[in-house]
Design goal:
The chain is of the alpha/beta class. Helix content is 39%, strand content 16%. The strands form three sheets. A six-stranded parallel β-sheet has the order 1-11-8-7-5-6. Strand 9 and strand 10 form a beta hairpin. The chain starts with a strand and ends in an 8-residue tail after the last helix. The structure holds NADP nicotinamide-adenine-dinucleotide phosphate. NADP nicotinamide-adenine-dinucleotide phosphate binds next to helix 10.
Length: 298
């Protein structure tokens, strides 16, 4: 069984980005700069934003985090986005989701300048992704594609089953895996909560990508022998043996599925760090396009 080590692969990507940033700065260019908007005090969101900020600094980016209380109005968030859109010194902007209920995620995502949308959620960028045009691709699916590339996982001609159809993970993942590209060129089935015979379908998969947000839902009975399993799920479950009182688990029962699969991502240390690496890649691409170094967000 091969453990697909997202932590290690992401640290290689970060070193590559850091080397490129150092070269740009030596050449007299400004450092790439991304901004994050964080609303409210959700613990998981704060952890994600802190690690995005830390990783950005590690590679030599400038980072700005705009922290607001949950009571902020939608209008104020939209005004902040407009301000960042108009700031030529900021190359990338992401708004940490989820947002409080009184703020429309749709309005917020639509308000981001597509050329700064390093999360790749703006409809213009989603449209370009579907058409196979160069753009910023949502960070989690982009990070998974990078894992396939760098861990030498063959996807061409394979049967790929994706469980979960969210706009940020499952749906874009299905587009990327069915593209005429490498990685890609897979035959894709996209499953969701209304899928009948989920287990039988999952068992057909050479590549099983799980993103449903249910801790350890997928056990060995869902997995074909020799499959490659990508576990996107991140859930906190109570664990009295830990100081924090919880542990992080994925959507897959790692202990039993790792005995059946040929390759598997761990949680933590699999897809999570790759999402951040992909966000940094997206920021560097946006920066290069804005600086006229490359023509497109390739
Ligand atoms: P989401 O928006 O809640 O979507 C969950 C999807 O799973 C939906 O499409 C839902 O179907 C489907 N689903 C739920 N229960 C199911 C069942 N019993 N059988 C089949 N399908 C089922 O979740 P998300 O935002 O994609 O996130 C999924 C997980 O990935 C979460 O644990 C999240 O924390 C994690 N995540 C991790 C990263 C990372 O970087 N590691 C990034 C993003 C998300 P319906 O559409 O029919 O409701």
């Amino acid at each position: 069984m091969k453990l697909i080590d997202g932590k290690e692969i992401s640290s290689i990507i970060k070193k590559e980005i850091a080397a490129e940033v150092a070269e740009l700065i030596d050449a007299g260019k400004p450092a790439p700069h991304f901004a994050v908007i964080l609303v409210g005090d959700d613990g998981a969101s704060q952890t994600y934003v802190n690690s995005k900020e830390k990783s950005g600094k590690e590679v030599g980016f400038t980072t700005s985090v705009y922290r607001f209380p949950a009571s902020i109005t939608e209008k104020e968030v939209l005004e902040t986005i407009k301000f960042i859109n108009e700031d030529d010194e900021i190359n990338g902007l992401l708004v940490q989701l989820p947002l409080p209920e009184h703020i429309s995620e749709e309005k917020v995502i639509h308000a981001i300048d597509p050329s700064k949308d390093v999360d790749g959620f703006h409809p213009e960028n989603i449209g370009k992704m579907v058409l196979g045009e160069a753009t910023c691709i949502p960070a989690t699916p982009s990070g998974i594609m990078e894992l396939f590339k760098r861990a030498d996982i063959e996807t061409q001609g394979k049967n790929c089953v994706i469980i979960g159809r969210s706009h940020i993970v499952g749906s874009p993942m299905s587009i990327l895996m069915s593209r005429d590209s490498n990685p890609g060129n897979a035959t894709v089935t996209l499953c969701h909560s209304k899928t009948e015979n989920l287990k039988e379908i999952a068992k057909q998969a050479d590549i099983l990508i799980v993103a449903l947000g249910r801790p350890e839902f997928i056990d060995a009975s869902y997995v074909k022998k020799g499959a490659c399993v990508i576990d996107v799920g991140v859930s906190r479950v109570p664990d009295s043996t830990r100081k924090s009182g919880y542990k992080i688990v994925g959507d897959v029962k790692f202990d039993e599925v790792s005995k059946v699969a040929d390759a598997i991502t761990p949680v933590p240390g699999g897809v999570g760090p790759m999402t951040i690496a992909a966000l940094l890649q997206n920021t560097l691409r946006s920066y290069k396009r804005q600086e006229g170094i490359t023509q497109s967000c390739k």
